[in-house]
Design goal:
Elements lengths: L2 H27 L3 H15 L7 E5 L5 H8 L3 E6 L2 H13 L6 E5 L14 E6 L10 H8 L3 E11 L5 H5 L6 H4 L9 E5 L2 E5 L4 H8 L3 E9 L11 H4 L1 H14 L11 E8 L2
Parallel strand pairs: 1-2, 1-4, 2-3, 4-5
Antiparallel strand pairs: 5-9, 6-7, 8-9
Helix pairs in contact: 1-4
Length: 275
């Protein structure tokens, strides 16, 4: 089987996984306080660079929580995803919030951005919560970004790195599979979403910086859920409110520093297109 065929099959598997779980996403995750913490952190990061009334291209927009948020702030968002069910849910939210003049949708993979119907140019290209980890062709995706941006446009990506301090610490609890799942993952690691399987790859900030440095300047890299636990530590805030608040404060002070910026569950990286 060729690499192209393998990549295409993984995209189909990923789309099927998210199609089947899309109706449950909001109900499952809306009450998770750590997911809300992550969203707030990412949005705060983006807004320090985002000019008023910007035009945003969102990759792997999902059910549209971020698209709705930014559109309600006055920005225009072109929200893309490979899952038709996710796009249907986002369309319903768009209509419910009366944001049809602010949000447009396109069913397309981020590995096919050269075929994008709405080519911008955009002020921001944004991808949240590791959607880009669902491809072995991140270099291909990164190679298309500059042509879709205005001069001085921003790219903000939220990505899973190849090492996570919290995951590795699970070794102490005997959870070897989770503790080592990011290790030896150059050919991808099997991931699942409620019984639906697809492959996931891990990318460090240096990978993105190397591939974009000829056209982009790095603005910042922040660790996300480096000290605050990942969201699968359910009810952590409710069970340990004082510890949770302490960890949030410490993460805020260390998020841009080495090594904390690249050993969290995720990192947030922003780059600006060179003149």
């Amino acid at each position: 089987m060729t690499n192209d065929s393998t990549h295409a099959l993984n995209e189909l598997a990923t789309a099927a996984a998210f199609d089947s779980q899309a109706p449950l996403f909001d109900s499952l995750y809306s009450s998770n306080s750590i997911i809300q913490y992550k969203r707030d952190r990412v949005r705060s990061h983006v807004e320090q660079y985002l000019a008023p009334n910007s035009f945003i291209l969102e990759l792997n927009a999902g059910t549209g929580e971020d698209a709705i948020y930014f559109a309600a702030k006055g920005h225009k968002v072109h929200a893309t995803d490979i899952s038709s069910t996710m796009q249907d849910m986002l369309m319903k939210k768009t209509l419910e919030h009366r944001l049809g003049d602010k949000i447009s949708l396109e069913l397309i993979s981020f590995t096919s951005l050269d075929e994008l119907h709405c080519k911008g140019p955009y002020d921001l290209i944004f991808s949240n919560f590791a959607g880009l980890n669902c491809t072995a062709e991140l270099d291909k995706v990164l190679g298309t970004l500059a042509s879709l941006l205005n001069q001085g446009g921003i790219v903000t990506l939220v990505v899973l790195p190849s090492f996570c301090l919290w995951e590795t610490s699970l070794l102490l609890k005997g959870k070897f599979k989770t503790a080592f799942r990011r290790f030896f993952s150059r050919k991808g690691r099997r991931a699942h979403l409620e019984g639906n399987y697809f492959k996931c790859w891990y990318y460090n900030p240096s990978y993105i910086v190397r591939r974009l440095r000829s056209r982009f300047d790095v603005l910042s890299v922040e660790g996300l859920c480096t000290l605050v636990p990942p969201s699968y530590f359910e009810q952590f805030e409710e069970k340990h409110p004082h510890i949770f608040n302490f960890l949030k404060r410490k993460e805020e002070s260390l998020k841009n520093k080495w090594p904390w910026r690249s050993i969290g569950d995720y990192y947030i990286i922003s780059l600006r297109k060179k003149p």
